[in-house]
Automatic annotation (TrEMBL):
<comment type="similarity">
    <text>Belongs to the p22phox family.</text>
</comment>
<protein>
    <recommendedName>
        <fullName>Cytochrome b-245 light chain</fullName>
    </recommendedName>
</protein>
<dbReference type="InterPro" id="IPR007732">
    <property type="entry name" value="Cyt_b558_asu"/>
</dbReference>
<keyword id="KW-1003">Cell membrane</keyword>
<keyword id="KW-1133">Transmembrane helix</keyword>
<feature type="transmembrane region" description="Helical">
    <location>
        <begin position="86"/>
        <end position="119"/>
    </location>
</feature>
<keyword id="KW-0472">Membrane</keyword>
<dbReference type="GO" id="GO:0020037">
    <property type="term" value="F:heme binding"/>
</dbReference>
<dbReference type="GO" id="GO:0005886">
    <property type="term" value="C:plasma membrane"/>
</dbReference>
<dbReference type="Pfam" id="PF05038">
    <property type="entry name" value="Cytochrom_B558a"/>
</dbReference>
<comment type="subunit">
    <text>Component of the phagocyte NADPH oxidase core complex/cytochrome b558 complex, composed of CYBB (heavy chain (beta)) and CYBA (light chain (alpha)). Component of the phagocyte NADPH oxidase complex composed of an obligatory core heterodimer formed by the membrane proteins CYBA and CYBB and the cytosolic regulatory subunits NCF1/p47-phox, NCF2/p67-phox, NCF4/p40-phox and the small GTPase RAC1 or RAC2. Interacts with NCF1 (via SH3 domain). Interacts with SH3PXD2A. Interacts with DUOX1, DUOX2 and TPO. Interacts with NOX4; this interaction mediates superoxide generation.</text>
</comment>
<keyword id="KW-0812">Transmembrane</keyword>
């Protein structure tokens, strides 16, 4: 059996968390009227939508991913490094835990943060899918 690429799992988990937080807080009133957590969910979605290229095998690109890939590439090591992503997701999960409607997104972000930390420890990093 081959090596597991943990970042792929973390990407899917974090994208689900971002979508969950955007949807759950869109109409919620909370400390910030839901706007703060919604913008955090949008940030997570924009960061996580472009998939990373797999080390072995082929990677299926998401629809319209090439536009967001250019933005993620623009920020260089800040978006490529999985240690930074793990810290970012953990930091976004803390305030989201105070609103009942974002508990699911908080748990998903916490899990994604842990998986990204594991991926970073194993030496993985985000690589763009280049067109042939």
């Amino acid at each position: 059996m081959g090596q597991i690429e943990w970042a792929m799992w973390a990407n899917e988990q974090a994208l689900a968390a971002g979508l969950s937080e955007c949807g759950a807080t869109a109409g919620a009133g909370g400390l910030w009227g839901g706007r703060g957590w919604t913008s955090g969910g949008v940030l997570v979605c924009l960061l996580e939508y472009p998939r990373s290229k797999r080390q072995k095998g082929s990677t299926m690109e998401r629809c319209g991913q090439k536009y967001l890939t250019a933005v993620v590439k623009l920020f260089g090591p800040l978006t490529r490094n999985y240690y930074i992503r793990a810290i970012l997701h953990a930091a976004l999960a803390v305030p989201a835990g105070f609103l009942l409607s974002t508990i699911l997104g908080t748990v998903c972000l916490g899990i994604a943060s842990g998986i990204y930390l594991l991926a970073a420890v194993r030496g993985e990093e985000w690589r763009p899918i280049e067109q042939k």
